[in-house]
Description:
By secondary structure, this protein is an all-alpha fold. The protein is built from ten helices and no strands. Helix 4 packs parallel to helix 6 and helix 9 packs antiparallel against helix 10.
Amino acid sequence: MNPDGTFGLTVIPVLLASLALVAIAVAISTRLRVGIEKSIVWAAIRATVQLLAVGLLFTVIFDSGLAELWAWLWVAAMVAVAVTVVLRRAPKVPGILLPAVAAVTGSAALSVIVVFGFGVLELEPVRLVVVVGITLGNAMPAAVGGVAQTVSLVRGRPGEIEALLALGMRRPEVVRYLAPQAARLAMVPQIERTKVVGLIALPGAMTGLLLAGVAPLDAVVLQLLVMLIVLGAVAVSVLSTVLSVAGTAVSPEMTLAGWASDRES
């Protein structure tokens, strides 16, 4: 790193060196004919282009006099993209739009209120985008996982659901039967990441603060705040999507909904 805090041209060999493991993975996949090499390469290219674009946007937008406006517009764009991704996982499930919007916007609002409303950090354009981005970056995959797990569970057990309805169970009872398993499966990745933090993985925010010279305890407290917000946002996103999708599995006539027996995605 240069004295002014920039990497300069040294970033090029660093990026090339970081591709070593990617190249090894691609070589192994190709040699064993696993078939994931194209996905790996595309993911690496896409991440590089997106992050470079974000860096340029941060530089151009937040040096302007309309930084706050651009920050809120950026947040709105992130929310819209996250909702679109969640909806894409359940295109044939009716009534999922409002729960998806509520899960995503609720997660973003939660992070903004806690971090800035309680004065943990001063509200600044860059910080706003970063905090919301961290929250949505975890809440969106969790919501997608909740949708996917519930759809898979419902379509995998149509006979059981029909039997429950034939025994006189109402929609709330069917939802309580389906939701726990789907929610647990969708929450497993985030719960496991939270359990091992500090033992196996050192979170990025804390690591960045330590490298920037922040006192270790201050860095840990801020990272703990972020992780607890993320854990709560993930749980809310999973539960809202799971309960909504499970509820639509039963039609108003108390029969199995059409999408629940349709195995085409």
